[in-house]
Recover the amino acids of this structure.
């Protein structure tokens, strides 16, 4: 198991409509010192990214109500081109990977996601 690193002072957004998935990710990061924001749909994710320039990473569920993660990423890219956005998807296929790249996602993780994968994504995309 990867030991959690300190990310005190860093903010991430978890865009996930499934409460148990959000709780799992939040619990995985509980000892990292991160400030965690939660968007329950794609529209909220876009709004959070507009209102919170301190967000350093977005973990974006692919399928959410109101606006999908793909659609939200396209909108976020209009004003936050450098922000790492990692798509979280249960539907791993060539099409979903292509759609992630086309929408502007920086990376993707296949669900179910393990603790080590989540900690690795932090280390990869947030430079402390």
């Amino acid at each position: 198991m990867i030991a959690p690193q300190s990310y005190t002072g860093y903010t991430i957004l978890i865009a996930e409509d499934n409460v148990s998935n959000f709780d799992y990710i939040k619990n995985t990061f509980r000892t990292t010192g991160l400030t965690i924001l939660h968007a329950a749909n794609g529209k909220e994710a876009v709004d959070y990214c507009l209102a919170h320039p301190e967000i350093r990473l977005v973990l974006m569920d692919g399928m959410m109500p109101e606006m999908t993660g793909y659609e939200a990423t396209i909108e976020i890219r209009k004003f936050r081109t450098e922000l790492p956005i990692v798509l979280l998807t249960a539907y791993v296929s060539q099409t979903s990977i292509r759609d992630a790249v086309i929408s502007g996602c920086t990376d993707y993780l296949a669900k179910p996601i393990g603790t080590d994968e989540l900690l690795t994504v932090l280390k990869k995309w947030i430079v402390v």
The domain at 11-125 is CATH 3.40.50.2300 (Rossmann fold).
